[in-house]
Amino acid sequence: MSDEEKRPRKSGGGTRLGLGALSGLLAGLAALAVAELVAAGVRPQAGPVVAVGGAAIDRTPGTVKDWAIRTFGTADKLVLQLGILTVLALFALALGALALRHRRIGAAGVLVLGLAGAAAATSRPDSTSPADALPSLVGAVVAAMLLHALIGRLLPPRHHLRGSPQPAGEGWDRRGFVIAATAAAAASAGAGVLGRALNGAGGQDAIASRRNTDLPAPASPAPAVPRAAQVRVRGTSSFITANKDFYRVDTALVVPKVNATAWRLRIHGTGVRRPLTLSFDDLLRRELVERDITLTCVSNEVGGPYVGNARWIGVRLAALLAECGVRPPSRGGPADQLVARSVDGMTIGSPVEDVMDGRDALLAVGMNGEPLPFDHGFPVRMVVPGLYGYVSACKWITDIELTTFDAYDSYWVKRDWAREAPVKTQSRIDTPKPFARPKTGTVMVAGVAWAQHRGIDKVEVRVDDGPWAEAALAAEDSRDTWRQWSYPWQATKGGHTLTVRATDRTGEVQTEARTRTVPDGASGWHSVVVTVE
């Protein structure tokens, strides 16, 4: 056989292999699109990407989660989903190429992926029905059938039944493959768009319930924020963090949209003499209090952005617990842990003593003058000043159980985080930014410091290895909010390191010892390096 005769055969084999891989990719897209459509009839969280992503989050060590938050910030969930889609695409391409030689094995591989997605969906903490397996299973069956059909178009008639590899150079149904592949792509796109639209429509009742929520005037309004609480230095954080700018760190790949009219909260457990079930309207009819409270995420590195200050409105949690007959351990109560459960299955454990010690622990219904945004827990969430969010700030809360720390480990404790986690005294330089190049002369150094429920008593700034100099503190709103500070630095030419530390109202000076966020929050002094020109 001449070289000229050999080349077309090699090229034709390569083309078929590429089209086989493409068939796998089209089958994978069909699986996801059909699963999205089926999930609209089950629940959005049962979709394979969300289910697998949630299962991955559940099984990822806390240190890895912490790294992802540090590296990708609030885009960590998007990165995870893109990673899952990339892996699925690679599997689909490989299965398509395999199916060209072993048609049934390739289709069976698609079904195995569907079973994995179904297992992930039904193993999620918020899964309450075997129906959660349906999106992945139905999507996989459709994908397997499609892959089998597309590969059939790439095989000559005499190989359809045998499923054996095609010798190079034999004919295959080019026109039939193009038509089938185009139709599959169009149908998948249509199913995906329809599924996404239906899933979006499923949250319309929740959106309407939030839109129709009128928050009553609080019986105990928050005092006006002192005008002097905001440092007038460009680059300093706003004293009140706008809802759109407030940090969001949680494990929900799909933000739950809960209909407030159907929402219920159950309070029960050890030491609860009078169990209680409340509706959203029940909460709104109770005495509401309004408070400015700074929240901090335990994943916040020294100098990090995961801290924010907002004006919250809600019901005192301690009053509800007392109504149920709950007593704190200091008064003989048998429960020392309050386990809050979210609609997405998250569990967060809080010390009963802290919740009932007189601080403004709230079941919050409003944030900065409006109903809670969905991202921040609508219709109801917990807010407890002085505790990191992972032990206090349950969003989309639906259940409160009183128990003990010995009897139950909450979600994050199972992943090696501390059971109790009071916020550490911390401070941050907001301006100048790292590697800034200010001019010589007076440079305003400014930032924020926080020690929720203890308050900030002093902030000091150090230039290079010089002495500590006391910064000017802005007015204090309350001991549960952060406090801004500023320091006029007489900058000289050259490179300099600016360092800040704070002292809280108990007299504790922020420690220099650097620790990572696991197991109970980062510690250490924040510093920035600048070059003065």
Percentage beta strand: 15-25%
Mean pLDDT, rounded to whole units? 92
Helix-strand topology string? HHHHHHHHHEEHEEHEEHEEEEEEEEEEEE
Q: Structural class, from secondary structure content?
A: alpha+beta
* Helix run count: 12
Provide the gyration radius in Å: 29 Å
* Uncertain spans: 1-11, 160-164
Strands, total number: 18
Oligomer: single chain
What is the rounded distance between the termini? Answer: 76 Å
| Mass-distribution shape | globular
Question: What fraction, in percent, of the residue positions are helical?
Answer: 25-40%
Describe the largest sheet: 5 strands, mixed
Largest beta sheet: what is the strand line-up?
A: 2-1-10-5-6
Task: Characterise this structure.
With 533 residues, the protein is of the alpha+beta class. 35% of the residues lie in helices and 21% in strands. It contains 12 helices and 18 strands. It has helices at residues 3-42, 48-59, 62-72, 76-101, 103-123, 134-154, 157-160, 174-202, 204-211, 280-284, 317-323, 352-355; strands spanning 264-269, 276-279, 289-296, 307-316, 337-342, 347-351, 362-367, 370-371, 381-383, 397-403, 426-431, 441-450, 456-463, 468-470, 472-473, 483-491, 494-504, 526-532. It has a 5-stranded mixed beta sheet with strand order 2-1-10-5-6. Strands 3, 4, 7, 8 and 9 form a 5-stranded antiparallel beta sheet that branches. Strands 11-12-16-15 form a 4-stranded antiparallel beta sheet, with no helix packed on it. It is globular, with a radius of gyration of 29 Å. The model is unreliable at 1-11 and 160-164 (pLDDT under 50).
